[in-house]
């Protein structure tokens, strides 16, 4: 947890003493609801460990623990030029990553293309055709039409997918606003490759990559102590390197038990049976009214998509309570709109530096047309702190569970996502929770120099995808073909990389 040193969030508890009794009692109730003790964190983490192990044993477990067929960490000496494609919900990003001869260094050029909204509900042919057109445009712009050698591509496909091969992926379900018929339950690679072939685009898909696995691999490229990759953003997830002998559901493949295997946990689904997470009535409402009730329980309590909604539901509830009645006599119609507040709204409240919370007052007036009293502002600030702190503390349980499962007492964790990068105090609150869970010495748990330390990640969807493509070709060169659908085609791709680089 980098750059924060020993700093901890400044408490405003002293400013709560002058609140009216009606608000003071509500704050006490909210503190009981949203505060997660160290003992509870340990209980959650222990259940998390058992669920990780279950996912490695059984198909269709709550936490899927998907094998990715990325089977080694980079050593920093990888070289070559590789393409990376990141298909997000808003943009399509194409990168050309050159892994240089300088250990752990790279050069990158990239272009972004808008993802038209109509494509998200169109046809599969339209989607893959558009993606292929963008790749063709990128190659022609940077290399001209004379480019003939097939460039290897790492495709960051950040949608839940199962993989029997690294260059293959069966979409389990669309997310991020996509709803294209005839794609779920099928391998996304053949129609994508058909669109490339139809246009004569010289690309060989070498690896289909999840962004969390890419984050881990990209971070490990520059840091040999890196063991886990995490995303704390709109959603949450983690990846780590397991050994094949600890993955019973792959036993039928007779893999060398000592071979490494990157596992994409997809652990936002943790505790969807509601056994251990301390859900509040507001969490239950969010789950029941979501498109997929009783799924992604962990994610719904800590991810950026939901923090603002939890906050909104609490405020609306307090407004409607006769004994509390905040925002009395005001038009709260804007507050009644579901998902109208995001995690950035809470972050702005927590970042308000003024004792009188004037920035929060302006935020409510400008965003919600609500004029807040001083006591209401104090309640609002405390509520934001409670929700943000709970998210950070619960998020530590997933990281701690992987460490406990693997027996790691020290490691580095590469973390990415808007909540990790932008939400105030998230890193230091998470560090304190890790200290409580893992029983660190008293002087730890402040961020920098902790036994398990989180660092801002390298570009997982760009550099990570390119690195995984490089590692895949490296495996083929030495005859390690586990999880590769067409080794001969991969060998040709490896030759193409060498031919391309010999011209540079």
Overview of the molecule:
The chain is α/β, with parallel strands linked by helices and 504 residues long. Among the domains are: 13-64 and 272-391, Hexokinase, domain 1 (3-Layer(aba) Sandwich), CATH 3.40.367; 77-213 and 460-502, ATPase, nucleotide binding domain (Nucleotidyltransferase, domain 5, 2-Layer Sandwich). It has helices at 21-34, 38-57, 124-143, 189-199, 211-222, 281-289, 299-302, 304-320, 343-351, 358-368, 374-406, 418-422, 426-438, 460-477, 487-502, and strands spanning 66-67, 80-87, 91-99, 106-114, 151-156, 161-162, 170-171, 203-209, 226-232, 236-243, 260-264, 411-416, 452-456. Strands 1-11-10-9-12-13 form a 6-stranded mixed β-sheet, with helices on both faces. The protein has a 5-stranded mixed β-sheet with strand order 4-3-2-5-8, with helices on both faces. Strand 3 (91-99) and strand 4 form a beta hairpin. The chain is globular, with a radius of gyration of 24 Å.
Short characterization:
The protein is α/β, with parallel strands linked by helices and 504 residues long. Helix content is 42%, strand content 15%.
What fraction of the residues are assigned to beta strands by DSSP? 15-25%
Average per-residue pLDDT, rounded, comes to: 90
Return the CATH topology of the domain at 77-213 and 460-502: Nucleotidyltransferase, domain 5
Question: What order do the helices and strands follow?
Answer: HHEEEEHEEEHEHEEEHHHHHHEHHEHH
Task: Name the CATH homologous superfamily of the domain at 77-213 and 460-502.
Answer: ATPase, nucleotide binding domain
Q: What's the β-strand tally? A: 13
Highest-level CATH class of the domain at 77-213 and 460-502: Alpha Beta
Instruction: Determine the structural class based on helices, strands and strand pairing.
Output: alpha/beta
Radius of gyration: 24 Å
Strand count, sense and barrel status of the largest sheet are: 6 strands, mixed
Give the termini separation: 39 Å
Strand order of the largest sheet: 1-11-10-9-12-13
**Can you tell me the CATH architecture of the domain at 77-213 and 460-502?**
2-Layer Sandwich
Family: Belongs to the hexokinase family.
Protein name: Phosphotransferase
Region (Disordered): 1-21
EC number: 2.7.1.-
């Amino acid at each position: 947890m980098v750059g924060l040193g020993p700093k901890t969030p400044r408490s405003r508890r002293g400013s709560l003493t002058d609140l009216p009794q009606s608000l003071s009692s509500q704050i006490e109730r909210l503190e009981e609801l949203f505060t997660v003790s160290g003992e509870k964190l340990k209980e959650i983490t222990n259940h998390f460990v058992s669920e990780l192990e279950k996912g490695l044993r059984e198909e269709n477990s709550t936490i899927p623990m998907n094998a990715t067929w990325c089977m080694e960490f980079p050593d920093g000496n990888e070289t070559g030029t590789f393409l990376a494609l990141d298909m997000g919900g808003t943009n399509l990003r194409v990168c050309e990553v050159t892994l240089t001869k300088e250990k752990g260094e790279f050069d990158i050029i990239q272009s972004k293309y808008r993802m038209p909204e109509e494509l998200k509900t169109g046809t599969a042919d339209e989607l893959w055709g558009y993606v292929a057109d963008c790749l063709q445009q990128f190659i022609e712009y940077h290399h001209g039409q004379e480019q003939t050698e097939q460039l290897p591509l790492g495709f960051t496909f950040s949608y839940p997918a199962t993989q029997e091969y690294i260059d293959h992926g069966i979409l389990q379900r669309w997310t991020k606003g996509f709803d294209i018929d005839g794609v779920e339950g099928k391998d996304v690679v053949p129609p994508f490759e058909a669109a490339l072939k139809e246009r004569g685009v010289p690309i060989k898909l070498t690896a289909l990559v999840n962004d969390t696995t890419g984050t881990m691999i990209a971070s490990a490229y520059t840091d040999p102590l890196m063991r886990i990759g995490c995303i704390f953003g709109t959603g949450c997830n983690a990846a780590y390197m397991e050994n094949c002998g600890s993955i019973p559901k792959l036993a039928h493949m007779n893999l060398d038990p000592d071979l490494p295997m990157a596992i994409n946990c997809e652990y936002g689904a943790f505790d969807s049976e509601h056994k251990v997470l301390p859900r509040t009535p507001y969490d239950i409402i969010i789950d029941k009214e979501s498109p997929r009730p009783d799924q992604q329980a962990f994610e719904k309590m800590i991810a950026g998509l939901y923090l603002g909604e939890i906050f909104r539901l609490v405020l609306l509830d307090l407004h409607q309570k006769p004994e509390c009645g905040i925002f009395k006599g005001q038009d709260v119609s804007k507050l009644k709109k579901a998902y109208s507040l995001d995690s950035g709204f809470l972050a702005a409240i927590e970042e308000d530096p003024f004792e009188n919370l004037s920035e929060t007052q302006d935020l409510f007036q400008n965003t919600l047309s609500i004029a807040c009293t001083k006591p209401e502002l104090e309640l609002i600030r405390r509520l934001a702190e409670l929700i943000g702190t709970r998210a950070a503390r619960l998020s530590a349980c997933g990281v701690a569970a992987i460490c406990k499962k693997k027996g790691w007492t020290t490691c580095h964790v590469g973390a990415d996502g808007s909540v990790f990068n932008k939400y105030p105090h998230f890193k230091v609150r998470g560090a304190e929770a890790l200290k409580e869970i893992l029983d660190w010495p008293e002087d730890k748990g402040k961020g920098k120099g902790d036994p398990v330390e989180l660092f801002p990640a390298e570009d997982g969807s760009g550099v990570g995808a390119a690195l995984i493509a490089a590692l895949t070709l490296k495996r083929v060169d030495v005859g390690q073909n586990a999880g590769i659908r067409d080794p001969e085609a991969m060998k040709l791709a490896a030759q193409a990389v060498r031919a391309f680089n010999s011209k540079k």
